[in-house]
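Changelog-adjacent note: as of this version, every example in the card shows the full chain rather than a window. The one below runs 246 residues end to end.
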Amino acid sequence: MQMLEMIQDYDTYSEEDFKVWRTLFERQIKNLEGKAHPEYLRCLNSLDEVLNPNKIPRFEELNEKLLAGNGWSIVVVPGLIPVDQFFKLLSEKKFCSSTWLRKMSQLDYLEEPDMFHDIFGHIPLLMNPEYAKFVQQFGQLGVKYGSNKTVEKQLQRLYWFTIEFGLIKLGEHKSIYGAGIISSSGESNHIFEDEIKVSPYDVEKILNNDFITSEIQTQYYEIDSFEQLYLSVGELEKSLREELAV
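Full-length structure tokens:
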């Protein structure tokens, strides 16, 4: 099924929307000091002209920067979309984003991702070549193998434990790159508490590790570098082929 083309209707944003954007952005950029990986912060800073707390970003302006960087662009969606459509868009270097923002009363918790999560959390690292290649090739594998429901579930697990909730080593310390942590004050504080479990990045283990979306995370996987993430695509495809051969 072809997705209807949607646009960001910038004129519909209210004063509260702009206040929510500024509040979330300023609060989280301060909260990420010493927590987010420097490469995320570098990429965010490279987009400062079009992605900052002063105004809700215009997607056409962001797209100019993204296309000039690694050929990515933003596609407007109403919210969560079918997995097969999501894989296809990623394979074409198109990242999905909603255009709605949470209310001031929802700053600390939201059941469904909004534009702040989609844009602040996901978009900056698409300026990193290795990370951007990983996301695109992840989408390509979804298109190639995702019609198998077991494989689809495995890819969702990998997405969850990398793109959404991934950690990356920074010297002897852990740091954040996953968008679900980057965009959440609660999650970005939680990962430095004692009760969480951090395991080395392992494709096989991740593909067989379920997750719960309704609870704060306790299990995380840590990559050594973005290069490791990109280079793991070959191992990932091998595992998916083996699953299909069973």
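Structural remarks: The chain has a mean pLDDT of 93.
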